[in-house]
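Q: Given only this backbone (119 positions), what sequence would you predict?
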């Protein structure tokens, strides 16, 4: 028997910061996602896990302050949706990260010398 999930407000159509922010703010910070995320164990900080990605995304969208940490967090996501399978708020972090990547690209953030680094 497969699990069924209620409809989600995703996917985003284009880089709309308000839609990204609204979806990210649905996170209840329960931490269930961190037990299934393959990147949190290999990243140098919590921003490499789903909860950290949500925190960094919200911070960036609210303040407008873009950092290498935000970019690294967004681009280190594998888009595997493992977190979605355990998320009680049914947040599709993969779609949030795709939207964030599109927004970063549309704003030319990757042309400004910021680079994605791994360990």
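A: Predicted residues:
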């Amino acid at each position: 028997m497969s699990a069924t999930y209620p409809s989600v407000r995703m996917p985003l159509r284009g880089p709309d910061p308000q839609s990204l922010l609204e979806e990210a703010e649905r996170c209840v910070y329960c931490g269930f996602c961190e037990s299934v995320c393959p990147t949190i164990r290999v990243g140098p900080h919590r921003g490499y896990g789903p909860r950290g990605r949500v925190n960094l995304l919200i911070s960036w969208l609210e303040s407008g302050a873009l950092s290498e940490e935000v970019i690294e967090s967004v681009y280190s996501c594998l888009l595997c949706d493992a977190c979605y399978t355990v998320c009680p708020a049914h947040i599709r972090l993969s779609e949030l990260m795709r939207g964030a990547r599109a927004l970063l690209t549309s704003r030319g953030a990757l042309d400004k010398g910021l680079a994605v680094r791994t360990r």
